[in-house]
Amino acid sequence: MLKVGVLVSGGGTNLQAIIDKIEDKKITNAMISVVISNNANAYALERARKHNIEAICLSPKCYETRDQFNEALLTTLKKYEVDLVVLAGFLVIIPECVIHEYENKIINIHPSLIPSFCGTGYYGLKVHEAVLERGVKVTGATVHFVDTGTDTGPIILQKAVEVKEDDTSKTLQQRVMEEAEWNILPEAIHLIANNKISVIGNKVKKS
């Protein structure tokens, strides 16, 4: 059984999608061991508690140094015996000590088709604003492994979403979540939990 730790800063809609797919058995051989947020008021923590999942607030603001927070995060993941770390809208930079400990065991959902509209500064609505400003016709979402770069790790899954003429950043954000994020993030977890993917260099191979 793959033990998953979900890290989230806000409302937790992607977390809810994972919970729903586990309960519907669309994700098999996996369970959420812990949900961690840097925001004590994040609704994601409430979502977790409603499903009897351990929910913890762990914020850099509560530590004297960033190194102390980094160590606390790693210690917490180990305490809950996490096999896979899922970043579901986590607005804290993942420390290198965690990345090295969980090499090819941390995944992130990004709301664009990487390598477009990704990297430093591209998060949340900023991604969709940039998409609309550029005038592209197709956007989407990407699930990728996390490495020491920003959105540079091996790509696991992508799903395209049409950009409509009357879209605002908020309507586009919602459609990307509904049509792409809430589907491919749970699918990636299912594939990993059932040993259906492998990483070769910077590429992911599905079996």
List keywords for this structure.
single chain, 207 residues, alpha/beta, seven-stranded mixed beta sheet, two-stranded antiparallel ribbon, 6 helices, 36% helix, globular
Description:
- By secondary structure, this protein is α/β, with parallel strands linked by helices.
- 36% of the residues lie in helices and 25% in strands.
- The protein has six helices and nine strands, in the order E-H-E-H-E-H-E-H-E-H-E-E-H-E-E.
- The protein has helices spanning 13-23, 43-50, 66-79, 96-101, 125-134, 169-193; strands at residues 2-7, 30-37, 54-57, 84-87, 106-110, 138-145, 155-162, 197-200, 203-206.
- The strands form two sheets. A seven-stranded mixed sheet has the order 3-2-1-4-5-6-7, covered by helices on one side.
- Helix 1 packs across helix 6 and helix 5 packs across helix 6.
- The two termini are 19 Å apart.
- The mean pLDDT is 97.
Query: Overall mean pLDDT score?
Result: 97
Order of helices and strands: EHEHEHEHEHEEHEE
Beta strand %: 15-25%
Contiguous low-pLDDT stretches (5 residues minimum) are none
Rg, Cα atoms, Å? 16 Å
The largest β sheet comes out as: 7 strands, mixed
Distance between the termini: 19 Å
Helix-strand makeup class: alpha/beta
Order of strands across the main sheet: 3-2-1-4-5-6-7
Gross morphology is: globular
Total helices: the number is 6
Number of strands: 9
Helix fraction by DSSP (H/I, runs of at least 4): 25-40%
| Oligomer classification | single chain
Itemize the secondary structure elements and their pairings.
Elements: E1 2-7, H1 13-23, E2 30-37, H2 43-50, E3 54-57, H3 66-79, E4 84-87, H4 96-101, E5 106-110, H5 125-134, E6 138-145, E7 155-162, H6 169-193, E8 197-200, E9 203-206
Parallel strand pairs: 1-2, 1-4, 2-3, 4-5
Antiparallel strand pairs: 5-6, 6-7, 8-9
Helix pairs in contact: 1-6, 5-6
